[in-house]
């Protein structure tokens, strides 16, 4: 029984990733989840109390995987190359369905506790680059890391919006800004 529930929950999360990837938060509805998984709509409520709960769980499951990929990209590099890997890997992950779930978080949909959990997870991502900036001798590595993440976030939004620029050009601009603005 527990295994069946676990499989159903995983199927619901996978369906949610697909819905978010295809249509954003508006597409993530309980009727759509039910249709994608073959469950009755009432059964979806047995697993999640709200759409926000689905998004919150996706973030709890997917954010650590995403952060591990960023950490792995940074692991073998020297300090300046770590900054580049930090930026590039996050921008590479923009098209990943797991990333869509993280981006789909809307402050109006989540309660304060959920937002705080997600902010803390995001803070862990920023902490990865603080060390590299410290190794580079940056006077305020924490502040620089937060600002660097702002550059990454702006590039992510630009890619997500389907901007006129090619995603590769956006990535190059973000990396250039990071290396010249943070490391230089």
Notes on the protein architecture:
With 184 residues, this protein is mainly alpha-helical. It is 77% helix and 0% strand. The protein is built from nine helices and no strands. It has helices at residues 2-23, 30-37, 41-47, 51-75, 79-92, 97-103, 112-135, 141-160, 167-181. Helix 4 crosses helix 6 (97-103) and helix 4 packs parallel to helix 7 (112-135). The protein is elongated. The model has no long low-confidence stretch (mean pLDDT 84).
Characteristics of this structure?
mainly alpha; 9 helices
The oligomeric state of the chains shown is single chain
Q: Share of helix among residues? A: over 70%
The count of helical stretches stands at: 9
What is the residue-mean pLDDT, rounded to a whole number?
84
Largest sheet: none
The whole-angstrom Rg is 18 Å
Taken from the alpha-carbon principal axes, the silhouette is elongated
Head-to-tail CA distance between termini: 57 Å
Topology, number of strands: 0
| SSE sequence, one letter per element | HHHHHHHHH
pLDDT < 50 runs, ≥5 residues: none
Task: Note the beta-strand portion.
Answer: under 5%
Q: SS-based structural class?
A: mainly alpha
């Amino acid at each position: 029984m527990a295994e069946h529930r676990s499989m159903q929950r995983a199927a619901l999360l996978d369906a949610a990733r697909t819905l978010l990837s295809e249509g954003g938060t508006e597409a993530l509805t309980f009727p759509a989840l039910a249709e994608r998984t073959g469950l009755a709509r009432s059964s979806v409520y047995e697993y999640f109390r709200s759409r926000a709960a689905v998004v919150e769980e996706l973030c709890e499951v997917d954010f650590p995987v995403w952060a591990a990929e960023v950490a792995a990209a940074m692991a073998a590099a020297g300090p300046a190359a770590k900054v580049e890997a930090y930026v590039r890997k996050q921008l590479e992950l923009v098209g990943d369905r797991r990333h869509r779930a993280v981006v789909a978080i809307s402050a109006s949909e989540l309660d304060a506790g959920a937002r705080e959990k997600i902010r803390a997870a995001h803070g862990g991502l920023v902490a990865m680059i603080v060390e590299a900036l410290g190794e580079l001798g940056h006077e305020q590595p924490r502040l620089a890391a937060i600002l660097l993440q702002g550059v990454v976030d702006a590039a992510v939004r630009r890619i997500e919006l389907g901007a006129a620029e090619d995603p590769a050009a956006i990535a190059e601009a973000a990396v250039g800004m990071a290396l010249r603005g943070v490391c230089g």
